[in-house]
Amino acid sequence: MTDDISAAIEAALSRIEAAQTLDAVDAVSAETMGKKGVLGGLKASLSKVDDIEERKALGRALNEAFSSVGAAIDDRRAQLVAEERNARVESERLDLTEAMDRATRGHLHLVTQAWQELEDVFVGLGFTVAEGPEVETDWHNFEALNMGEGHPARGEFDTLFVGHDENERAGDSGLLLRTHTSPVQIRTMLESEPPIYIVAPGRVFRRDTPDATHMPVFHQIEGLVVDRNISMADLAGTIEAFTQAFFGEGFTSRLRPSYFPFTEPSAEFDIRRPDGSWLELGGCGMVHPEVLRAGGVDPEEWSGFAFGFGIDRMAVMRHGITDIRDMYVNDIRFIEQF
Amino acid sequence: MKVLLSWLNEFGPFADPTDSEAVAAVAADLTSLGLAVEDVIVTGSPVAGVVAAKVLRVEQHPDAAKVRRVWVDAGDGEERHVWCGASNMSAGDVVPLATLGTTMPNGMTIERRGILGIDSEGMLCSAVELGIGEDHSGILLLDGDAKLGVSYAEVLGIEPDVVFDLDVTRNRPDCWSIEGVARDLAAWRSQDHANVGNGFTADGDSRTVPVAIQNPACGRFTATVMSGVRVTSSPGWIARRLEALGMRSINNVVDVSNYVMLELGQPNHAYDLATIGDGFTVRSARDGEVLKTLDDVDRACVVDDLLICDGNDVPVGLGGVMGGADSEISESTTEVVLEIAWFAPLGIMKTATRHGLRSEASARYERGVDPTLADRAVQRFAELLSLTCPDLVVHSGSADERSEGMPALGRSVDVRISEVNRILGTELNVGDLPGLLDPIGFVTETAGDIAKVSLPSWRPDATSEVDVIEEVARHFGYERIGRSVPKPTGHGHLSQVQIRRRHLRDVLLGLGISEAMPNPIVAPDTMQRAGISGDTLRILNPLVADESSLRLSLRPGLLTALAHNEHHRRNGVSLFEIGNVYPPTGDGLPSEHEVLGVVLAGRDAHAAVGVWREIAQALGVGAMIDQSNVPDGLHATRSGVLRAGRDVIGVIGEIAPEVLENFGVTERVAVLEVRIDGMLAGNGGSRSYRPISRMPSSDLDLAFVLSDDVSADRLERALRQAAAALLVDVTLFDTYRGAGVPDGRRSLAWRLRLQASDRNLTDADVADVKAACEAAASKLGAELRS
């Protein structure tokens, strides 16, 4: 019987080695180790061995046989599984650069990108963001900003007047498309009490022929601070803080005298690039006492500054856009670039 | 506004025009004063190598009628010959010769060039070629006595000079003059500032031209008679200064008039006394009254125009804007009457605008001229005219009429040093003010912490304390003001609306939709073409007729964008816009509000629904799709409105085929347009944590046959209610119409994922849900399909 066991092991091992499929392995397993298998049959015939010592010895030998055949089967099975997996992986070879799917994400308008970035910078400086209507009253757009009826500066705004009927005369309804975001200053002062620290980004309108650098519809951001003892030094410091936060280190700013009816003293602010060149950015100044009064703020108790500049220009500069009109054609070939 | 450095230097001096560093320093100083230098133009730099040469003889080219061979002597006794295309010179004339090697202003270098085998040894130059004038009709002829071989510039007396082109702001009428700019610059540089116009006295016998002012828009009118006038040409330096600043030299009288205006900022007009009769009247025009102005244009006037009339009430000038042609100085003029007046700015501005006639005079009057300048201007005029008219007599007895429109003189304002420092953030003492203000004519008298500041007559814009504070700031120097950053008491943040608006944009971008920004101003018929009715607000003064209506919907702009993209072979484009619409309400401001528009080219209505569901989920808002009434402009069987409670907040579906045709879009277009102001203002509901069940889930697939009249979402809601607490999710995964399903009905297959939070589901649980769903569905007329 010992010889039978040895023969069975040998036969099983050679069949296992020869098995090329998991099914073949399973068959060997059943035909060797199953109840009706060779080793199973030997195990069943063990009881017929009378000599207890011999039976024990044969039992041990059989157990070893089961164990070694079982291990061989497990190994072969694992080997075949791995081979099959490897074959599958090999068969799935893919040239990644053949990709045909185009992942699509939407693209934010360049003006929105600049707008949000500016908002974020000013939020970081402690400002909140105010909004106002695009169709405005003459009072909010001009009168309250120290540009009463007939003020010569009004002429410089190229205002688009709005009415309910095309036969109305321009200005009769007192409605217009806001020419700047400054009316939001007035609305904010009327709706809230100082201290006020706001920026107001928004769409503005001018009666202007579109060309490479002008659009009749464009965007500005306006800043207004009203608090106790706000001075021109605070204005200059805020412009400088903004300059470094938005443009980066190495950029500085300067104020130089200018004129706006709604601020006094008034200034233009320029940005000095690291290469030493200057960029005229926007206008600013101390809020004119008449403007504070129009906003219901006592100029003896409070003082403030305001500033404003174009948002579109930020996008144009950042991306080297040579014709501002391209931003408003809504051509997907343009939009997808950014 | 252009100023000439050599002219400024007469008040300064400020800089040598040939010293580029000094010139740059002047430009920087002017900018620091708020007189932004937009351009610095160097003039009068001679073209090196161009010398005076005498024409010896001229020969005709044998074959070319227009080419001459000219023999010249450039002072070195050597005969040179040049070929020349001009014919205005003859033997004995002195002309500019560009010698070989000269580089002309246009970049051309003069080289030895041959015609017919004979070399040309230089080039004779016209004024244009030398960059000193407009005349290109022939060769520039120099003074016949000029020394040969010297630079043409020396012969002409041209000296290097610099023109500064300044952007003068509206509050600085004083800087519409050389003197005003020089005054500011001298003060800034702590230099002395020379005075002009006080060197000539009216010592002639008294001759008065009476003046009557009938309209107070003329505040002052002076008329001074001068005799001994001889009309001739101006000295070269006067002509050149006028030309450098863009005015033509006419004759000595007109040139001096312009010179005084440019120098002092006082417009003035010299009439031929013989044409005036016995006096001036300043009055309103009669409607339709016609005056031919100096530019030979007949001007029909209205009652708001101001006319200067002669003794016979005949108009001789459009007040403050331009003189009349008929009283113009002529070669035979020997006596003039000089008008120097003050007009109210607003009226001049209106008249100049009405007649489309912006003259140098009106530009100054409409900004505000110093009402006290007249006396100095008369003296300066006489002083300069006497250079060409040695027998000039200024007669005493000039008229000086004033009306109640004459501005108040001797104005002053109190300035608190505390206010100066509060506004500027400076630490000035009241004693610092005179040093900053006196040199620019804001003469200060200090008393305690207050300075009483008299306001100069040339600064009509300055009326209040803060106006003076601005002058303090300017002359203290904006760049010397410190820098501090104020500390807001609150913290910076975006509002809920702004945060949610950004979230909305992010959701749309994630869905692959890009942002467009069409023009909110549209053509009057645009809304109708999009099937959208309703009155629009109108632009009353549109630049182009096609942009004269304020939109009621974002759809037209987005459709235009799709058409553009399709035209460029970009199909399947998805765009959104977040922007305002402006439906009118009665008389006042429109009901302007914020709207989201989405268009998906090449997609069907279900794609729009998918977008809406993502948005609604992201923002925590809800609305029902109601297909019972489809608004115009939308696909009649594939669209509906979005209804939040009773309110219609938007539309959803597809664009109507006829609208697509109107806009030139050939693809199917899914659309969503929804008002978002309310959606953004809400808080989106609470989002409290829902524990994830650890228990196994079970799927229940149910197909119902439902009438086409009942929307799927009604059935879905019924199923949700029926499945109640055990329902995790319900998804429509198949729809079917056709064999096996009766006409007018369709099969809708739903997958319900069921799960309990605390136990395994039993078969009984699933059976209960199924039974409940079946019952609920049957109330909608839906049968379970087995």
Description:
The complex is a heterodimer of chains A (338) and B (786). By secondary structure, chain A is of the alpha+beta class. Chain A is 41% helix and 20% strand. In chain A, the strands form two sheets. Chain A has a seven-stranded mixed sheet, sandwiched between helices. In chain A, strands 2-4-3 form a three-stranded antiparallel sheet. The mean pLDDT of chain A is 92. Chain B has 21 helices and 39 strands. In chain B, strands 26-30-31-35-34-33-32 form a seven-stranded mixed sheet, with helices on both faces. A five-stranded antiparallel sheet of chain B has the order 5-4-3-6-9. A five-stranded mixed sheet of chain B has the order 11-14-17-18-19. Chain B has six domains: 2-44 and 160-188, Phenylalanyl-tRNA Synthetase, Chain B, domain 1, CATH 3.30.56.10; 50-156, Beta Barrel (OB fold (Dihydrolipoamide Acetyltransferase, E2P)), CATH 2.40.50; 211-402, Phenylalanyl-trna Synthetase, Chain B, domain 3 (Phenylalanyl-tRNA Synthetase, Chain B, domain 3); 412-480, Phenylalanyl-tRNA Synthetase, Chain B, domain 1, CATH 3.30.56.10; 496-681, 2-Layer Sandwich (BirA Bifunctional Protein, domain 2), CATH 3.30.930.10; 698-785, Alpha-Beta Plaits (2-Layer Sandwich). At the A-B interface, helix 5, strand 1, strand 2, strand 3 and strand 5 of A face helix 8, helix 11, helix 13, helix 14 and strand 26 of B. Strand 3 (161-163) of chain A pairs antiparallel with strand 28 of chain B, so a sheet runs across the interface.
